[in-house]
Please model this.
Amino acid sequence: MSDSAGPDFASFHELAQLVHNLGEELAGFRKRALTAEGRLKALEAANGPTDLFSHERLAVVEQENADLKRRLAAATERTNQVVAQLRFLRQQHERAGSDR
Model:
């Protein structure tokens, strides 16, 4: 075996291990998807078909989103006011320190 075959073999082995790990991860995702499908079918059987994207649900989510945006804007404004007050107080403190 030549010296150049060593790194090629190591790279191939690493690639093979990555492909193996990816296959295991994919199998895990498939298992989770099948479990989720089973749960959804059980819910539909118990409650009838579920419309997760109904117009009513969309309206509720949009209202919640608008409320959250309003609350975020108010919190941002209050935060900006506190930052401005802190800057003012820092400037006052620095001026008081330099006047001594």
User: Anything to note?
Assistant: The chain has two domains: 1-50, 51-100. The chain has a mean pLDDT of 86.
